[in-house]
Amino acid sequence: MIDEEGKQVGVVPVEEALRLSALAHLDLVEVSPTAKPPVCRIMDYGKFKYEMSKKVRTARKHRHVIHVKEIKMRSEISDHDFNFKMKHAEEFLQRGDKVKFTLVFRGREALHRDIGEAVLKRVTQSLEDKATIESGIRSEGRNLMMIVAPK
User: Fold this and answer.
1) What is residue 32's predicted lDDT score, i.e. its pLDDT?
2) Residue 22 CB: number of other CB atoms within 10 A?
3) Which of 1, 62, 72, 107 could lock onto 9 through a cystine, CB 3.0 to 4.6 A?
4) Domain containing residue 30
5) Residues 79, 146 within the same domain
6) 121 contacts: CB under 8 Å, gap ≥ 6
7) Can you tell me whether residue 3 is helix, strand or coil?
8) 89 and 55, same domain (yes or no)
9) Are residues 95 and 132 in the same domain?
10) How far apart are CA 61 and CA 49, in angstroms?
């Protein structure tokens, strides 16, 4: 048993431990039930629960959630637009988010998938030092997609 000041009292019968906790106007809490003999502590259980919930809240607050940001392009993208979108992709990657590149084909552009694949390969070359390819170039309907994750 451990008393309210944190001092180890030793092995005490249950009745004696309950009497000591009642004298201190605190609760007897079983801290480690699997130990032989089980470890109990005299403490304010409400305060203990509050401290534990506070630790959980701070851990949740400091956790970073990874989002998947999407950047859409066309196969006939200009150099300026391409560089602008790459700058945004780099910002997303620096924040720790994944980036999904979607290349959209309209009309007869779908016949020239090789042009679209060349644009996505240009993306991988542009981001090769900042990102790793999580899922390579794949076709979904009239679109080509690729997902990159931060290094």
Assistant:
1) 87
2) 12
3) 1
4) 14-61
5) yes
6) 137
7) coil
8) no
9) yes
10) 18
Rg (CA), the chain: 30
Angle at alpha carbon of residue 121, lines to 117 and 122, rounded to 5°: 115
Considering the domain architecture, whether residues 142 and 77 belong to the same structural domain is answered as yes
User: 112 with 149: CB under 8 angstroms?
Assistant: no
Q: What is the pLDDT of residues 33-73, one digit of tens each?
A: 888 888 999 999 998 899 989 999 988 888 777 889 999 99
Q: What is the pLDDT of residues 62-112, one digit of tens each?
A: 877 788 999 999 999 999 999 999 999 999 999 989 999 999 999 888 888
Joined together, the tokens standing for residue 132 give 């790793």
The verdict on 55 and 85 lying in the same domain is no
Give Cα separations from 128 to 10, 83, 90, 97 (angstroms).
61, 15, 11, 16
SS3 sequence of 95-145:
CCCEEEEEEECCHHHHHCHHHHHHHHHHHHHHCCCCEEEEEEEEEECCEEE
73 and 45 belong to one structural domain: no
